[in-house]
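Hi support team,

I submitted a single chain yesterday and got back a structure, but I'm not sure I'm reading the token output correctly. Could someone confirm the output below corresponds to the sequence I sent? I've pasted both exactly as they appear in my results page.

Thanks,
R.
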Amino acid sequence: MMTNSMTSRLRPVQSGRTTLVAVLDIGSTKICCVIARLTPRPEGKALKGRSHQAEVIGFGYGQSTGVKSGVVTDIEKAEQAIRSVVGMAERAAGLTLESVIVNVTAGRLGSETFSAAVSLGGQEVEKSDLYKVLRAVNERSVRPERSIIHALPIGYSLDGQKGIRDPKGMVGDKLGIDVAVVTSETLAMRNLELVLHRCHLQVEALIATPYASGLATLVDDEAQLGVACIDFGGATTTVSVFNDGHLCYADAIAIGGHHLTLDIARQLSVSVADAERIKTFYGSVLPGQADERDMIAIQPVGSSHDEAPGQVARAVLTRIMRPRIEEVLTAVRDRMQATGMMDVCGRRFVLTGGASEMTGLPEVARRILARNVRNGRPMGIAGLPEMAKGAAFASVAGMLIYPQVCAQEYNEPRSVNKLTGTDGYFARVGNWLKTSF
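Hi R., thanks for writing in. Yes, this is the structure output for that exact sequence:
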């Protein structure tokens, strides 16, 4: 079972070595599994913090069932959907998965910043000192009802001097650290783990969806100067703020692109499938000059196929969609202002996720957020099928990047299972060598 601290269990990829990684994106509208080979980048061609390049060797994709707003609502249906998608990726890659990296949207994502200090006594800063101060933060931030997903150091100080990037090897009396802690509700995490166990899969690591989206779509200068990434998902909209190259804030709002589809279905009295098609082909949140004249054919719910379809002006569709988008953007702005993150994120927002590709969304976002806005697409992943290269798969691409950057996180120590058993012959020989020499 999960403990209250679910920080990364993942071992960082080693430079110069090729490794396989499997990721599973469990969304409210889609489930996607990707198996990729991480190969070392040629010397001098590595991006900042990216030591490997990802080449996809297995891809599985399917409709999500039994999941709502990232929370498991029907364990049987969720298990079937995950098994189907993972099986598809395994057949394409020609291997069987035992563990996966999973994204987290559920459980009311939240983030806080904690500070702690440890006495050095005038000695050099060692790795054990960093571990000690990170553990102190971890103990302070754990609460019974919430699990820690990430504990990311965002700044060090030595004897009150701030702005230190890596204190290892430096001398001082007091080492301080600021840590951004991303948490989620424990019960939501346990249900997610339970479904995966039923599929005979272990959770290798958890990554917050907004963090993954930011890793995939932001360029280095943006993350350094300050930027916010908004991921418009199917049933949730997640936000992450990066500054000085680090994640410092994450949040989630339980409204997404599927709510737009339901609004259209209700207002136009069409089926959900037809509403999705109308939204995809004709949807816009910015009124155009010809919208009153452009007519869209609709098939009302319950009408027979031989009946003539109805018609509705495109402007009506825009008037249905725009209030919902404005509601989401206003909620994002208000939450960020309440936490002081509008100042931290600088002057730029990046929009990603499947619902971010709506016509006119950047213009509406610029007006409401009063910031520069651009659309973001996943970068740096080779071998993805054409359908998976869009903004809807940003979190998947970020999950493939995550093993290369997870080394900076605090991770809860775990016991290593010895292949020979604790009392095996090799273990006894090892103990004898330790005690004798």
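A quick pointer for reading it: Residues 326 and 368 are 8 Å apart (CA to CA). Let us know if anything else looks off.

Best,
Support desk
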